[in-house]
Each structure stands twice: as structure tokens, then as C-alpha cells.
Amino acid sequence: MNLVELKSPSKEIRQDHWGKILCYAATGVLLLLLLTMMYFVFSKGIRTFTVDGVKVWKFLTTSQWEPTSTTPKVGALALISTSFLTTILAAVIAAPIAIIIAIYVVVIDTKIGTKLIQPIVELLLGIPSVVYGFVGLTMLVPLIRRSFGGTGFGILAGMLILALMILPTITSLAIESLRGVDRSYWNFAYTLGGTTWQVITHVILKIAAPNLIIAVIYGIARAFGEALAVQMVIGNTIQMPINLLTPTATLTSKLTTDIGNTVAGTLANDALWSLALILLLMSLAFNLIAKRFAKRRVKS
Amino acid sequence: MNRYLIDRVTRHLIQLLVGLVVALILIFLGYLIWQGRHQVTWTFLTTSSEVGLGIRDQLFNSLYLLVLTLLLSFPIALGSAVALTIYAKQNIFTRLAQMAIEVLSSLPSIIVGLFGFLFLVLKVGLGFSVLSGAIALTFFNLPILTQSMILALKNVPTSRLEAGISLGVSQWHVLLKVIIPEAIPGIISGIVLSAGRVFGEAAALIYTAGQSAPQLDYHNWNIFSANSFLNPLRPAETLAVHIWKVNTENIGIDADKISRGAIVILVVVVLLFNFLARRLSNYLQQKNGGR
Amino acid sequence: MKKQLVIGSLFLLGLTLLAGCGQQKTTSSTENTTKSTKVIAVGSTALQPLVEEAAKKFQTDHPKTSINVQGGGSGTGLSQVAQGAVTIGNSDIFAEASQGIDAKKIVDHQVAVVGMAPVVNPDTKVKNVSLAQLKQIFTGKITNWRELGGKDEKIVVVNRAAGSGTRATFEASVLKGAQAVKSQEQDSNGTVQQIVKSTPGAISYLAFSYFKSGIQPLAVDGVQPTAKNVATNRWQIWSYEHMYTQKKITSTTQKFIKYIQSSRFQDTIVKKLGYISIHDMEVVKDAHNQVSEK
């Protein structure tokens, strides 16, 4: 082996080099796509404020939505509150169930869990939103009407449908999170005489907490963006959500109902894009809060 | 003794709850299948909606679109996941990238659809086509796919990488030979997760892949020919879009029947896909040394 | 070793496909310019089934043409045809009545007439209302079916999406400038049909072709919602379906629109799908909802 050979990079180094380039290129493509999308929504959503002259503060604090009247008014407060409330409630229902299913699949009965339970839960993903919507409309809404009165349309119906829809997303990611906990920690806890339940609560859930939070964030994100199903059961009426049974509307349900009927470049259309922008910003806020919360939990 | 009791009780409670939820889901799915049981016939599966009530082309379009979407998004997602978990140091950029991915996953699909319509269909000039649809779905698929791959890769202990490096093997080699094979179950479940959404997605496709299913010639293998089933530049209505369309605007009296039947097919296809994906995952794992 | 190959080739395949997209883009855009027989119609979902049917028939007679019919909503159709991005913009609404569209830049082709009627859930036991009562219901002045001689039940108003053609027609003929009560809004005919069918006390309005068992269409001032009454304007809630184009159009587009407007097509398919033939109309309506004798 002469000196020249030693000085030039080995085959391993070259392999590594190219591998790295390939992976970073993929990340580059991914970020480029995401940034294009963000730029697109941002540039369209900002027009309401820059071109049409609507005050941001007014947009966020009023609930009138009459963009085509002679004195145009657009206010998204009711939509924002409903989106927020429906999503949180859906996550509050779905997250614990999803995590319990994940515990079952990873800890209690791996065989039945992975062969049967997980596939069944994941089947829910392939059902189109519109089917959830129609089943909600023909079964859930009448059920709520008979049990609680009112028209049956409202946040209660919306959050139940959403909870069902985001269950597979959270479950799947939660299962991955729990699997990620190193076996040696479990074994250690068992040898110390811990029961399964103690191992679950004191070891597995604690270690997996940050990833579980991410799983829930994805569920929340999915719920935020869901439109077709929610639109059918929530009542699609722009008013503040006073209780769980009054009809109301979410950011996405309003967006989906109206966007095809508005003309590009008008206030009515711009304001809908602003709703999409708000959705992104809210989702960002959610993300930051959840991450901070996760950090604190891990420290304590 | 007490803690053993707690252990037993909680274990049973968990089993009960999981059983309950699964039963509920099965009732829901069973209801959908029961409703459409009379619709699913051989003719329903093998005729075109252009001439009758069949859904042959929609079924094929769904599958074709899934394949194209996965071809586009799988390499990007896997590459990014590797870069973000293994190569890059955990710093502000990787965290920003991760956050961008998470935030983007909340975009309503109709926004992705309109973006696809204005940008891909009109500006780039792809028209209403399978390709426009696949790219739009890639946008909307990437966050969840990348995230599940990140989780799957993180689950492989870092000791594997260190062992590899200390043996003088390149990181890349360890990655391909050890880490990715070990992460395969997680990666596959990520694919199942995103494939489910592709099958079920309507709003993003209405504006990109379109709502019409021109009659296809399944013997025409020339991908540039307009009626070839492989042509990526033809409009392609998927099953989910078809269900959406007949439910919302169709005038025909058979709308209910078509949509009920189509739902059954969709459920069965998703089930089959999940099953096959898991079989593949097991097979690859076994080849990897029976882990 | 095989795994390495498989994963490596997957990477490559994906990347070449990505690169391939770039190439396909250019080829497709050149194709568009050379193929002048390609027609893209986008817009109104209410008109979509008719145009689809027409395209199917037209293409069997003219096998070299390719007509691509998609939805997206009237607003989308008008915006895109005005920008010249698509060949035909389908719309339920006059371009003049739509905010933000320069109606002088595009040409209107009326291809069908659609009658709409109020529909209610059958358990309300109401089958006829006066125009004034209808207005009072939708402005929130009447809130119980008992006031109209029906069952003692709260009225649940289901309105149509703001800016939609259906809503514009209904408001022009019934509300006449009054503000509608704040209520549920739905965009698609199918959803409205389903909601009215399953919600006691519900009222909304639908195109004639969406009447189905389980919902009760209302007569207004004793006039039944039928095609015949629309033709004479005795039934006043109706509108045109429009296909807008740029001023300069290809001969294929022209032929296609002529085909849809022909009596052969109007008398058969248009009627079969529940629309009303433009040739049957004895009156005309302009963009400001003024009706005059033909």
C-alpha cells in the first residue's frame, strides 16, 4: 500500500459522502416543497390585510362574515374558537384511547395487538371523509338530537367524528413511540420487582412522553385540517360556540364550503385564504406549546 | 400485594377498553359493508362508469395513483428521515425542519388541492392528470410519512451505528445493511398510514387528478397514448373522489347504490393493502436474520 | 446484498421519476399548443353532469377531440376562464352578478335552465306557502311550522353557500334584497338533500332534479314547481346554466357548445337529466333578474 492510496479517501469515506449528499438532497427537496406551500398560503392569505385593507385585529376579534355585502365584514373569531375547541376535545377523547391501544399492542399482547388490533384501527384511515360525514349525518346527528335535544348539529357531533378519524393516526405513531423505548429499561424495572403496570406508568410512558406528544400533535393537525366530514355534522353556521349543541362552523368547514363559489382576487376569496393562513399559524402555536409542555414533563 | 391487584385490574381494564373500541370500529365497518353487500358484483368491479354503474377505472386509478405517490414520496421521506435522525446534528435547523413538517401536516387537503390546481394543473401545465394528483398527494403525504420514518429510525439503538463505525464500515453501509432493515416494520407502518390517506383522500384530488374517468384501454401499453391505462397525464377519478361525487352532486337514482358498493370495495382494498404490507414487512425482517 | 440493491434502486427510481417530471412538463406544454382539439371545462358542479354527458356523446361523434369536464365551483370556473387558463367556465350565475369578474371580457352561452324549489322535511306537514311566508321563513320572522298550519315544530333553515348560484337565484326571486337569517350553510345538493331528509323541521331549496322520496317540495302561492310553470315564469325561482368562454374560441369549442344548445340534445339529454330545455322557455331573464317576453 503506497502513500498515495492512503491519502486518497477510502471507498468507505466516498460511500458515506455520497450517501450523505443523497439524504441531504432529499431533505432539500422536502423543505423546498414545504416552503413553496407555505409561501403560497402566506402570499394569498396576507392579501386580505395588504390589498383589501382589513385590519388584522378586527379579523381576529369579530365574528361577522359578509364579504360580499355593500359594507363588507370579515371576522374569524367564531371560526377560530370553534376549530380550537372541536380539535382539542377530539384529541382529549382520542389521545387516551390511542395510547391505551398502543400500550396493549406493545406491552400487553404483542401478538394479537400487531396482527389484529393495529390493522383494524388503521383501516379507519382509508375511509374517505365524506363517508364519515354521511354516517355522522344519518346516524350520529339524529342520535344526539334524540338524546340531548336541539338539532343535533354542533361541536359534539363534530368532535366525536373527528376523534374517530384521528384515532388511527395517533395510535400508529404512539405504537412507534412505545416501541422506541429500549427493552433494557423494561427489563431493569422488572428485575427490580415492578409489576407490568408499574413498568408502563413509571418507565415506558415517561420515556416515550416526548414522542407521544408528537403523536398527539399529528392527530391534532389532522383534526385541524379535516373539512368534508366536519362540515356535514357541525351545522356550518357562523356563530360563537356557546355550548356543544349549537350549530357552528370551523375554519376548514367554512373554507371548503365557500372556496369554489368565490372569484380569485376578491375579498371573499382572499379572506378564505386568510383562514388557511390562520390555520397554519394556530397549528404552529399548538406545536410550540405542546413541545414546551413535553420538555417540562421530561425534566420533572 | 396491593400493587399486584392494581396490575391485574388495570390489565383487565385495558383489555376491556381495547376490546370495546375495536368492537365499535368493527360495527362501524360492518355497517358500511352490510349496506353495500348487494352492490358488489363482478360486473360492478369490471365495467366502466362511462357505460354503466361499474367502478373498474376508479379502482385502477386509486391503485395507480397510490403507486405513483409512493414512488415520489418514499425516497424523499426516507432520505429526509435519515438526514434528520442520523446525519445531521440536532441543532436549530433540524428542529425547524421538523417543526415545518409537523405544521404543514395540518393544512386542509382542499388547500393542497387548490395549490395543485393553480400551480401544477394550470401554471406548470400538467393538466388534470394522475401526475398532478400524485404530486399534490406527495405534498400532503410527506409530513406523516417522514415523521413515521423518523420515529422508526430513532427506535434503532445508536449502538448499532457506533459498532459499525468502530469496525471501520462506512455509516452509509451500516445504514443500508443494519439500521434501515431493522427499522422496516416502522417504515412499513408509516407507508400503510400514508397509503390509507391516499386511498381515502378526495378534496385534494378533486382539483388535481380530476373527477372524470375516461374509458381506459388496458391493452394499450403506450404510456403516451391518451387512453392508455398507464398514461400519467390523463385525468383520473379515484374511488374516494367517485364516492364524494355521487354523494354530493349526482342526479342519478343509483347514486346511493354506487357509493355504498364503492365504500365496500375501498374498505376491502385498504384491508388487503395493510395485510400485504405487513406480510412484506415480516418477510423482509425474516430475511434480515429472523429478528 | 439484495436489500441494499432494493433500497438503492428505490432511491434511484424515485429520483429519476422526479427528474422525469421535469421533462414531462415541457413535453405536455408543447402538446397543449399543437393539440387545439383539447377542451377543458371547469366550474359549476350543478352543471357538471350535463356537460359530462354531452362530452361523452360529442366525443363518440368526433373521436379526435378530447373534452375534459371538471368541477371546482362556479367561482373557480369564472376566474379561470376570465384568465384564459381553461377553455370553458361553467357557471350557475351570470358573470355580471359575480364580484370581481369583468363580464365584458368573456362570452356567455346559456345551455340549460334550472328550476329550484323550497323543500322541507315531510313531517312538517306543510305543502304550500306564499312567497311572503317563504321570505319570512328565510329572514327568520317565522320560526315555527305551526304558524303555517303545520306541525308544532321549530323551523330549521338550511341555506346554500354564500356566492353560490343557487343562493343567488333564490335570494333574487324570494328575499329581494332582505338579509337572510343566520343559519346553516351547505354547498352541495346531495348534502342538502340528506340533511333535509334526516332533520325534522328542516327547510332548504334544491334544483328540481334533486327531488327524491323523503323530502317534500313546496308549492309557492299554489303554483307547483314544474318545468311547465318555469317555462311561462309562473314559477319564478329559476336560473340559467352558463358556459362562459373567451371571445376567441377554437372551432371545436364552438361546435361543442352548439351541440349542447341544439334541439336534438336539449330535447333528450337535458330533459332526461332533469334540467329544462332553453328552447322551451317563453320568457328571458337578464343578469339583473328582469324577466321579459321572448
UniProtKB/TrEMBL annotation, chain A:
InterPro entries registered for this protein in UniProt: MetI-like, MetI-like_sf, Phosphate_PstC, Phosphate_Transport_Permease
Sequence ranges assigned to domain ABC transmembrane type-1 in this UniProt record: 80-290
The protein's topology relative to the membrane is: Multi-pass membrane protein
Q: Name one GO biological process term.
A: phosphate ion transport
One GO molecular function term of this record is: phosphate transmembrane transporter activity
- Family membership noted in the UniProt record: Belongs to the binding-protein-dependent transport system permease family. CysTW subfamily.
Record's Pfam families? Answer: BPD_transp_1
List membrane-spanning regions. 21-42, 75-108, 120-141, 153-175, 271-290
Asked if the Swiss-Prot or TrEMBL record annotates the protein with the keyword Protein biosynthesis, the reply is no
Which function does this protein serve? Answer: Part of the binding-protein-dependent transport system for phosphate; probably responsible for the translocation of the substrate across the membrane.
Primary subcellular site in the record, as a coarse category: membrane
Where in or outside the cell it occurs: the entry states:
Cell membrane
Alphabetically list the UniProt keywords: Cell membrane, Membrane, Phosphate transport, Transmembrane, Transmembrane helix, Transport
Provide a GO CC annotation, any one. plasma membrane
Q: What is the name listed in the Swiss-Prot or TrEMBL entry for this protein?
A: Phosphate transport system permease protein
Reading the lineage from the top rank, the first entry is Bacteria
UniProtKB/TrEMBL annotation, chain B:
Membrane topology type:
Multi-pass membrane protein
* An example Gene Ontology biological process: phosphate ion transmembrane transport
Q: Return any one Pfam family short name.
A: BPD_transp_1
Transmembrane segment boundaries: 12-34, 63-87, 99-122, 128-153, 174-195, 258-277
- Which SUPFAM superfamilies has this protein been placed in? MetI-like
Q: Where in the cell is it found?
A: Cell membrane
Which positions make up the signal peptide? none
Q: What range(s) does the ABC transmembrane type-1 domain occupy?
A: 59-277
- The superkingdom of the source organism is Bacteria
- What are the GO cellular component annotations? plasma membrane
Task: Give the molecular function GO annotations.
Answer: phosphate transmembrane transporter activity
Keywords, A to Z, come to: Cell membrane, Membrane, Transmembrane, Transmembrane helix, Transport
Belongs to which family?
Belongs to the binding-protein-dependent transport system permease family. CysTW subfamily.
- According to UniProt, the name of this protein is Phosphate transport system permease protein PstA
Organism this protein belongs to: Lapidilactobacillus dextrinicus DSM 20335
From TrEMBL, chain C:
**What's this protein's name?**
Phosphate-binding protein
Say if the entry is tagged with keyword Membrane: yes
Q: What does this protein do?
A: Involved in the system for phosphate transport across the cytoplasmic membrane. Part of the ABC transporter complex PstSACB involved in phosphate import.
Picking any one GO biological process from the record gives:
phosphate ion transport
**Signal peptide segment:** 1-19
What broad class describes the main subcellular location of this protein? Answer: membrane
Identify a single GO molecular function assigned to this protein: phosphate ion binding
The compartments listed are:
Cell membrane
Keywords, alphabetical: Cell membrane, Lipoprotein, Membrane, Palmitate, Phosphate transport, Signal, Transport
Sorted alphabetically, which CDD domains does this protein's record hold? PBP2_phosphate_like_1
Q: What is the lineage of its organism?
A: Bacteria, Bacillati, Bacillota, Bacilli, Lactobacillales
Under the heading InterPro entries, the entry gives: PBP_domain, Phos-bd, Phosphate_ABC_transporter
- PBP domain residues: 30-263
Q: State whether it acts alone or in a complex, and with which partners, per the record.
A: The complex is composed of two ATP-binding proteins (PstB), two transmembrane proteins (PstC and PstA) and a solute-binding protein (PstS).
Q: Please tell me one Gene Ontology term that the record gives under cellular component.
A: plasma membrane
Please tell me whether the keyword Nucleotidyltransferase is annotated for this protein.
no
What is stated as this protein's family in its record? Belongs to the PstS family.
UniProt topology in membrane: Lipid-anchor
